[in-house]
Design a protein that fits this description.
31% of the residues lie in helices and 34% in strands. It is of the alpha/beta class. It has a single domain, classed as Rossmann fold, CATH 3.40.50. It has a 7-stranded mixed β-sheet, with helices on both faces. Helix 3 crosses helix 4. Bound molecules: adenosine monophosphate. Adenosine monophosphate (AMP) binds next to strand 2, strand 7 and helix 5. The site of adenosine monophosphate has 17 residues, from strand 2, strand 7 and helix 5.
């Protein structure tokens, strides 16, 4: 009988050379359609975070919205969207971050969080840490109580973890 972790690893599709040569893309769509795995994963993440008093789950566009909103529902927390530049309709804060070639920007509504919030930031995958660092910087603008960070998958060989600003906790379900 395979462990939960083995079943999770088996369910993620590795796509070589996507979106460009040399990148092995971890495709979670094959995980998401496995009803039992999706529900066990959400239950385990809920157990991990249920006693921290999380008031808002913050998801990074776009795959961070999927498990992020399931977690918000289970934790009885709100859900906040971090989006690529130009997508959010009201006043925003933004942070620019470095990509391999050029830069990108992410934004959040200025009224999205309050200083009393305890935040759980979620994304599907930590690679170089560029987008998560920008996301943490954005959340820090609100001077919230605590910032906890969760990824389904961490590509630990890229050492993204070392690039992130200091947070209250950092947890990945799977590490490669
Ligand atoms: P990074 O900013 O380098 O940590 O990249 C993280 C973001 O890019 C996440 O939102 C991921 O969804 C996506 N990403 C980066 N590398 C991969 C990969 N090998 N497989 C799947 N998604 C990736």
């Amino acid at each position: 009988m395979k462990s939960f972790e083995e079943r999770l690893i088996d369910s993620i599709r590795n796509v070589p050379d996507f979106p460009k040569p040399g990148i092995q893309f971890k495709d979670i769509t094959t995980l998401l359609k496995e009803a039992d795995l999706l529900s066990e994963m959400a239950d385990r993440l809920y157990d991990y975070y249920k006693d921290l008093g999380i008031t808002q789950v913050v998801g990074i566009e776009s795959r961070g919205f999927i498990i992020g909103s399931i977690l918000a529902y289970k934790l009885k927390a709100g859900f906040v969207l971090l989006r690529k530049a130009g997508k959010l309709p009201a006043d925003t804060y933004e942070v620019e971050y470095q990509l391999e070639y050029g830069t990108d920007k992410i934004q959040v509504h200025r009224d999205a969080l309050k200083p009393h919030d305890v935040v759980l930031l979620h994304d599907d995958l930590l690679a170089t840490g560029g987008s998560a660092s920008a996301a943490i910087e954005l959340i820090q603008k609100f001077e919230v109580q605590q910032i906890h960070v969760n990824f389904l998958i961490e590509l630990s060989f890229l050492k993204g973890r070392e690039r992130l600003p200091k947070v209250d906790s950092l947890h990945s379900m799977l590490s490669f």
